[in-house]
Amino acid sequence: MREKLKVFGIPIGIMLLFIAALFFHQLLLVKELPQPNWSRSLPLDYTAKERPQVFQNNGELYISSKGKIHAFTINDEMKVADERVIDTTITRGYPFWTDGNEFIYYKDGGLVSTRDNEDQILSKEITGLGASANHIYYWRNEQLYEYNVQEDSSREVYTFPSQISEIHAGDNGSAIIQVKQDDTHDYVYYMNDNREVSEKPFLLVNTAPNKKVEGLTFKVTDERLTLLYNEKSRTQGTLSYSTYKVQVPLQEMGSSILSGSKIEFVNKDTSEKLASAGGVQFVNVDGKESVVFTSEGQRIGDNSAMSLYAAPFQNQGILEGSPLSTTKHVTYSPVQLTDEALVWFNYDGGTYELYGASQNDQVVSESTNWSKRSVKEALNNGVLMMFSSLVTVLTSFYWVLPSLFLLILLYIFRPNAFEKDGISWAEYVSIIIFMLMPISYTRNAMNAYFYQVAPEYLVFPGSGYALLLLISVITWVIWKIGRDPDWGSFAGAFYFMGIYILFYITSIGPYIFNLF
Predict the structure, then answer these.
(1) What is the pLDDT of residues 76-94, one digit of tens each?
(2) With 80 as the cut, is the pLDDT of residue 26 above it?
C-alpha cells in the first residue's frame, strides 16, 4: 500500500492541486468587474420566451411581450422597486409609446390609444410609427404626421416624394426619416426640432434582404449632424455587420448625397478587433459622449457571446470599446436608464432575461459577491477548460515517439544497454529527449488566448521555459521517489512521461485551446 502511494498517490495529489488552482482561478474571475467603475451584470428577475419590445419614459422601463406590458421602476441599487403588469397587447414589430397610463401603438392599420383597457382609434390607415420619450410620429404612405398627447390632436408635418420606410425619433423632436427609393434602397432625410425637413436627402442606404440597414443613431452638436448606422449583409451564407459614420453641417444638409465612412471597433483592454459590431447608440457615460454597441465577447466563457461595450466617441475611424457586460450569451436592446445605469436582454437561445449594470459604488461592490449563479458559472468554465486539456493530450502525443523509437532500436540492436542494474543510461537518454519535445510546442501554444485567460502566475516573461523547467523538476523528483527498482527501462521511462504529461495538461493545458 505504501509503495502504491509513492508510485501513484503523490502524482495524483499534485495533479489535484493543479486542478484546484484552476477552479479557484475561475472563482476569482467571476468576481472581476468588466471595468473598474462598472458593476458586474445583475439579473433583474424578468424573462420572456419571445423577443420583448422596450420603451423608457418617466424613469420607468416598459417591456411588452405576449400580450402584456411590464412596467419596472429600477432604483439606484439596481433592484426592481416596483413592478406593474398591464394587460395590453402591442403589435409585434412595431414600437409603442406610453407615459404609464396611456399606451399608443400600431394595431390593425390604425394608431390606437389604450387607457384603462379601453381602446380609442386616433388615426386610421397608417403605415407605421416612431416614438421617443416626448414625441410620437406616424405616417401614411408618404405623409408624415405628429400626434400631440397633451392636446390629443394630430397634424401633418411633411409630404415626401415617396413612401416612408422608417422614422428614428430623437428626444427633442428631431428625427431621421428613411424614404423609399426602390426595393433595395432608401433615401435618408433629416428633420430638426422645429419640424423642418431637409428638402433633399443627404444619404442613400441599402434595404435589400441580403444587405440592409439595421440600427441607426444620431446627434446634433454645434450645428453639425453626426449619424451612425449598422449595415447587415449576407454573402454566401456568411453574416457580417459593419458600422458607418456620416457627418454634415446642418446648413449643408441635402446639398449632396453623402457616403458613410466605415468605423472599426477594437477592444481597449486587448487591442484586438471587435467583429460584428451592431446596435450602436449614442449615450452619455461618465459625463462623456459615448457609443454603446454589441460585439463578440472575448473573455473566457464567451462562447459565441455578443457582449455590450462602450466607447468614448471621437471623430476618428477607430473607436476603443470597453466591455460593460459579463453575461455569456447574446445582448439585445440595450437601454440607458440613467447617467450611471444600463439594462439589456441576454438571450441564451431560448429565453430573454433582463440584466443591468451600474456605476453606483454600492452596486459595484455588492456585484462582486459570490452567488449560486456565479459559482455555477465558475464550475462550468472550469470543467470546460479541463475538457480542453484533452485536446492538449491529443496534440502532444508525438512527444513520446522519439524516446519510444530510441528504446525500441536499442532493444533490438543494443540489448545489453538494458542489462545494467538500476536505471540504465538508455532510460536517462530517453527521458532527456522527451523533456526537450514540449519546448517548441509550448512556445507556439502560449498565444494571445493563453495570455488572456491564464492566471498571472503563468504569464510572466519567460514563463514558458520556467514552467517547463518546474514541471520537469517536480516530475524528476517524483520519478526518483516512486520508480520501482524492479521496473525495466521501458516502464521507468513511461512512468516519467506519464507523470509529466499529467502535470502539463492540468497546469498549462487548460489555457491552450479555446473550446468556448
Answers:
(1) 999 999 999 998 889 988 9
(2) yes
3-state secondary structure string, 398-419? HHHHHHHHHHHHHHHHCHHHHC
Q: Could you tell me where the beta strands, DSSP code E, fall in 261-328?
A: 261-267, 278-285, 288-296, 306-312, 318-323
Measured between alpha carbons, how far is 9 from 205 in angstroms, rounded to an integer? 68
C-alpha cell at 209: 434582404
What does the pLDDT look like over 160-216, one tens digit per residue? 999 999 999 998 999 999 999 999 999 999 999 999 999 999 999 999 999 999 889
Cα separation values, 308 from 41, 61, 230, 311, 325, Å: 10, 19, 15, 10, 5
Distance of alpha carbon 425 from alpha carbon 389, whole angstroms: 32
Distance of CA 14 to the CA centre of its chain: 36
Bridge partners of 118, per DSSP, are 115
Phi, psi (degrees; rounded to nearest 5) at 344: -165, 175
In terms of pTM, does the model score above 0.85? no
Neighbours of 352 (CB within 10 A): 22
Q: Which of 299, 283, 301 is nearest to 291 (CA)?
A: 283
How far apart CA 117 and CA 40 sit, in angstroms, is 39
Question: Coil, strand or helix: which one is 21?
Answer: helix
- d(C-alpha 334, C-alpha 234), whole Å: 24
